[in-house]
Design brief:
6-stranded mixed beta sheet; 4-stranded antiparallel beta sheet; binds calcium ion; single chain
Length: about 550
């Protein structure tokens, strides 16, 4: 085998080994190394830049993946780290970029990158995400901006406290006759709310692990961790709630992302990874809320697009039993649709499957719905150990005469699969996103007809067609300044003039596989060109001899 070829093969094998070497979730510095490796290994397709630095001094990376003139091609945006406790989302976004580029030698990916550009923002919550790797592990959403979450005039005065000293924040239960929680009859390791209507009695108060450091009656209400990325956007901002910020888009990373996206007129779809899910179950059309002045649900035509894409998602990713979600406001999924006017899709990418009783092991079917007991049974069946802390009595300054115990499942485990499941999830989501690109709107001009109409006039008729399955732009996009509609332009030269029909016109949203017929009466002779297109649907130019 020639030397050069051996070296190339070695690199193909080794370089991919290096990329796959991680067997745990990546902290920020490892993410940064992986991001830069892409620009270095695939200079012809990948460009990396820092949008800004967060209050915690961490870069927000943007990876642009595309071939020549990437910014002139229809594009999909992929966003991870939408929630600071959602490490999987970061892995899915960054892993998508890695998988796509690893395949960039193949003809299919080359063809894809000739037609579609991908803007990947792997981690929008790097300040918060670092808590997963910190000495004290807890699910944090807020960035490093210092905030007064409970508006008592003090900042960060009451965070969690590791009462049992195990390096993670779990739960704390206090025996109390006024407690609303009882032991789950299906699994004594978990607690569930007592249903008073059914005559059930509570026996425990349930809190996150900590003390009331400032003695205001609340536990852990204001610790480190300021503004949540997924609560800081303009659509239905939940003002004056923890994590929403002083005003919408108050943070450097939210501002930088929006400034960047608003200038990307070529984007037609945004895929984000977070707790909201409109891919397992698409939005349903609600005529009343969709037609009110302040639109509060997806428009009918866009609901159709969501169901096409959700169908694709379910076929490619094949995860069952998704929980129903409703965006809480200030969230990125809603912003990208209602205020950015693009198709916006979000999924957590994984959840604990609903687990059935293993009768061989004498397990019984659950009588109470409880994500914790379901997780524990699943973890047992999977052989996952060390994710539960047995309840243990601690002495607690706020409950001197009561029994207080600390224990419960580990932080993160309900939304963060064991890392060995991640490569397969990345692969499936990569397939999904590339298949989404196959639905991309694509403008063409067909059925061009010319008829002489006497006195030097020619009637020109043509069909503007959208060859993609997704309508362009979204129906909501018709109303947005930030969404460029399809423009059709007749370019006259010399003695030519347009007698009837419009020289320049913008079209309403053109359905998937839809056509619109246009006709003009042109005076004059020679070559005439007609252009049709938009930044997010591509363009086409035709030439006619009059
Ligand atoms: Ca405070
Ligand atoms: Ca602890
Ligand atoms: Ca307080
Ligand atoms: Ca407090």
């Amino acid at each position: 085998m020639p030397k050069k070829r051996t070296a190339f093969l070695l690199c193909t094998v080794l370089c991919s080994v290096v990329i796959h070497a991680q067997n745990t979730y990546s902290n920020f510095s490892q993410q940064t190394t992986r991001v830069h490796a892409l620009a270095k290994n695939y200079p012809q397709y990948a460009k990396v830049k820092s949008l800004t630095k967060t209050a915690g001094g961490k870069d927000i990376w943007q990876i642009t993946i595309g071939s020549a003139n990437a910014d002139k091609k229809p594009a999909i945006v992929v966003v991870g780290g939408v929630e600071g406790n959602h490490l999987l989302g970061m892995e899915l976004a960054l892993g998508f970029a890695e998988n796509l580029l690893q395949g960039s030698n193949s003809d299919s990916i080359k063809m894809l990158l000739n037609k579609t550009t991908f803007y990947v923002f792997p981690d929008m919550s790097p300040d918060a995400m670092e808590q997963y790797f910190a000495g004290l592990k807890y699910e944090r959403q807020g960035n490093a901006t210092v905030t007064d979450d409970d508006r008592d005039g003090k900042t960060d005065e009451d965070g969690f406290d590791d009462l049992d000293g195990n390096g993670k924040i779990t739960m704390m239960r206090v025996e109390s006759p006024v407690g609303m929680y009882r032991i789950n009859p299906d699994d004594p390791r978990s607690l569930v709310k007592a249903d008073l209507i059914k005559g059930e009695k509570g026996r425990y108060l349930l809190f996150t692990e900590g003390v009331d450091n400032d003695k205001d009656g609340n536990f852990n209400e204001d610790g480190a961790g300021g503004v949540w990325f997924n609560k800081n956007f303009t659509y239905k901002l939940p003002a004056f709630t923890q994590g929403s910020g002083e005003f919408a888009v108050s943070e450097k990373e939210t501002r930088a992302l929006l400034d960047t996206l608003f200038e990307m007129f070529n984007v037609y779809a945004v895929v984000s990874f977070g707790s909201n899910n409109n891919l397992s179950t698409p939005y349903a059309y609600n005529a009343q809320t969709a037609n009110q002045t302040l639109i509060a649900s997806w428009l009918q035509q866009d609901v159709k697009a969501d169901s096409i894409v959700a169908d694709l998602y379910n076929r490619t990713v094949n995860l069952k039993d998704a929980a129903k979600t409703t965006p809480a406001g200030g969230d990125f999924l809603s912003w990208a649709y209602y205020h950015y006017g693009r198709y916006s899709f979000s999924t957590p990418g994984w959840w604990v499957p609903k687990i059935k009783a293993d009768t061989a092991k004498k397990e019984k079917a659950f009588t109470v719905e409880d994500p914790v007991s379901n997780y524990l049974r699943w973890a047992d069946q999977q052989g996952i150990t060390n994710t539960f802390t047995e309840w243990k009595t601690v002495s607690h300054p706020d409950f001197p005469n009561q029994k207080v115990e600390v224990g419960g499942i580990d932080p993160f485990v309900l939304i963060t699969p064991p890392y060995k499941l991640v490569p397969d999830l990345v692969k499936k989501h990569t397939v999904f996103i590339t298949q989404l690109a196959a639905l991309q709107p694509e403008i063409d001009i067909i059925n061009i007809r010319t008829e002489k109409a006497g006195s030097g006039l020619t009637r020109v008729t043509a069909d503007i067609i959208n060859r993609g399955a997704l309508a362009s732009p979204s129906k909501l996009g018709e109303r947005s300044y930030w969404v460029k509609r399809i423009v059709v332009k007749v370019n006259t030269t010399g003695n030519q003039s347009v007698i009837s029909g419009r020289k320049f016109q913008t079209l309403n949203s053109l359905d998937g596989y839809g056509t619109q017929q246009l006709t003009w009466l042109i005076k004059g002779t020679g070559k005439l060109t007609i252009d049709a297109g938009s930044p997010s649907a591509g363009s086409k130019s035709i030439e006619i001899n009059l």
